[in-house]
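Example for tutorial group B:
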């Protein structure tokens, strides 16, 4: 069977780590006894009730933050971390914060309201307004008879004497304080005169400062359109109004100092700005001087400028005249060309050309017609001559006659066509006559006669 053997130091260290991790934050209520306050400034005591007690250590850096005077028999509530003192093996509490036992109910209300408002986002850092670096006017919300007002005025007059101050007096303790603080913040917003608000009061117990934990005051601080800096109580005091403000300080004096720039730093800043302005002015003057020199070198005598402009004017006039003449010539040539083109395309020209062409064609047609008719006329004349030559009338004209049957009109060419006593019609050169055949003869018969 294996076993684990611890050294006393290792066991004590492990127990200490276990206790500190398990009980890293705890609230206890009890009575102080066996109090010891050595010259180191630390305090060692037992916290007991009717049935048990536990050793406590309250170190100097934490002890100085409490306003309580420690004494045996004092009922207190402590916020502590559980630990183990390894050198003696003693179980003990390391106290971080202490308050009188009577403040326990207020503390519980404080924590409950804190959780509620935190869940609603009233303490959200992203919603904080930016504090102006150089405010022109500052509103002071505090008691007009308290020491806090005197401290804030002294700080602001020393640190930032040029700022305008306006007091909005309010009651800062008691049952009427919340309404008075809310009204003061409303007046600040209604006046719309100041750039930042400093709200504060002097130190006191949790009950004394409770007005700044009132829900209406906390909501008014969160909803204020003007940035707010709070300085409530002393360094260890923290109210819900501090958490809702845009910025909070440990004391009213610190809040006033945070609202305004430091006079010495502001003076140094103004001196630096003045030096920058002086240097910028010098550079600007140097640039102006350089530009003046440059422009002076470019400036010429008016007569020279006029002469140059006159020459340039003559040159431009010559160029303009030549350009006008060339333009006129171009226009004239274009006009003649267009007129020629227009005349070529004119209907009158087309008609004239057509008329000339028609006349030429007419003459050619007449000539061809004459040639054709003359040829036909010559041919006709030839045929006529031939016909005349062959015509029996020509024969008749020489003393011959054409004998026809008067009934049928048939030309008698053979005597066999005749008989004695037949009637014939004889056509002579000038007229005709009828006769009766009394005698005829063929080439093979005796002569015949006709009456």
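The residue assignment follows.
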């Amino acid at each position: 069977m294996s076993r684990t053997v611890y050294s006393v130091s290792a066991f004590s260290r492990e127990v200490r780590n276990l206790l500190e991790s398990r009980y890293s934050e705890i609230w206890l209520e009890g009575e102080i006894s066996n109090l010891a306050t050595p010259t180191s400034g630390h305090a060692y005591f037992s916290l007991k009730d009717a049935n048990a007690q536990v050793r406590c250590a309250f170190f100097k850096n934490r002890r100085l933050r409490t306003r309580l005077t420690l004494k045996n028999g004092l009922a207190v509530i402590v916020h502590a971390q559980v630990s183990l003192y390894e050198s003696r093996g003693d179980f003990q509490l390391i106290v971080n914060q202490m308050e009188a036992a009577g403040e326990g109910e207020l503390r519980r209300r404080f924590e409950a309201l804190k959780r509620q408002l935190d869940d609603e986002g009233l303490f959200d850092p992203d919603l904080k307004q930016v504090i102006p670096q150089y405010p022109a006017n500052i509103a002071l919300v505090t008691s007009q008879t308290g020491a806090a007002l005197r401290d804030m005025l002294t700080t602001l007059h020393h640190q930032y004497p040029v700022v305008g101050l306006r007091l909005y007096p309010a009651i800062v303790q008691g049952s009427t304080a919340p309404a008075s603080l809310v009204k003061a913040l409303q007046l600040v917003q209604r006046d719309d005169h100041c750039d930042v608000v400093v709200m504060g009061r002097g130190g006191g117990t949790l009950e004394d400062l409770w007005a700044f934990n009132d829900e209406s005051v906390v909501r008014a601080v969160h909803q204020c359109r003007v940035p707010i800096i709070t300085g409530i109580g002393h360094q260890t005091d923290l109210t819900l109004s501090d958490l809702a403000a845009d910025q909070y300080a440990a004391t009213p004096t610190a809040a006033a100092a945070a609202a305004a720039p430091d006079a010495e730093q502001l003076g140094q800043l103004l001196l630096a700005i003045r030096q920058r302005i002086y240097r910028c002015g010098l550079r600007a003057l140097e640039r102006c001087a350089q530009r003046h020199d440059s422009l002076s070198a470019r400036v010429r005598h008016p007569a020279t400028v006029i002469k140059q402009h006159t020459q340039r004017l003559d040159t431009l006039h010559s160029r303009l005249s030549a350009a006008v003449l060339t333009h006129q010539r171009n226009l004239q040539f274009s006009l003649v060309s267009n007129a020629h083109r227009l005349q070529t395309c004119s209907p009158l020209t087309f008609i004239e050309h057509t008329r000339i062409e028609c006349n030429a064609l007419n003459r050619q047609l007449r000539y061809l017609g004459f040639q054709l008719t003359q040829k036909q006329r010559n041919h006709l004349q030839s045929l006529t001559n031939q016909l005349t030559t062959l015509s029996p009338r020509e024969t008749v004209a020489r003393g011959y006659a054409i004998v026809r049957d008067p009934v049928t009109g048939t030309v008698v060419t053979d005597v066999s066509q005749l008989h004695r006593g037949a009637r014939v019609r004889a056509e002579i050169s000038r007229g005709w006559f009828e006769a009766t055949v009394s005698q005829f003869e063929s080439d093979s018969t005796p002569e015949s006669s006709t009456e």
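The CA atoms of residues 328 and 334 lie 10 Å apart. Compare this with the pattern of hydrophobic and polar residues in the output above.
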